[in-house]
Here is the input.
Amino acid sequence: MGMAVYVTYVAMVLAAIRASTRLHEGLISKMLRLPMSFFDTTPLGRIVNRFSSDMFSVDELTPWNFINIFMCGMSVVGTIIVIATTTPIFLAVVPPLVIVYLFTQQYYIRSSRSLKRIDSVSKSPIYQHFSETLAGVTTIRALAANERFIKDNAEKTNLSTNAYFSWVIANRWLQIRLEALGSIVVLAAALFAVLGRNTLSAANAGLALSYALSVTQDITWLVRSYCDLNVSIITLLSLYQDEQCFQ
Here is the structure.
């Protein structure tokens, strides 16, 4: 419990707040010193997107993903040790499963990065169009162009929603694969418990099976949190690159 509190404090207070403060102050400091030519060539929606959704990713998603990786990782390691203590032959299944998990994870990350980038970029036109609509709402009403602007906003929103939906579908693809691999862990633990019924007590067999059932969810969250953390780091790097471009 003390370790969990310490990790939460380090990730949420020392790391997250300091990183978010430094990024935000760096961005706002550089942006306020930019020449007017920058604002003439850069859409306002792109700037608003950097200070809203991307900063939210750094503030909220990255720290919690780090905490989930640590907690679930410790739980998975402890569960494997308990199962291996009761049924040592279970260790023969661990290396192939780790290889399959790593392959699935890398396959998902390559596509998830691109989909997350598209989702982030597709939000900028919505912010840009909305700000322009608010600035010229009097002219829009005078020219009776309400329906055209509503239609344009709906089209941009649909494009952004499609990008987000594609990312969610990829996330569901990963979830199905991870659940299937978790079922293999439970099957292996149950099979080895049955094969060792002559030397394994009922208490140890029940202990191994109960831990195998719980480790499935922990492994799923571990892999998903690592993938989400990887995508969040890409967002953080894009923020850093934008800060460098603002210089």
Summary: Helices lie at 2-32, 36-41, 44-86, 94-135, 137-142, 146-195, 202-245. Residues 2-124+170-245 form a domain with the ABC transporter transmembrane region fold fold (CATH 1.20.1560.10). Residues 146-195 form the longest helix (50 residues). The chain has one domain: 2-124+170-245.
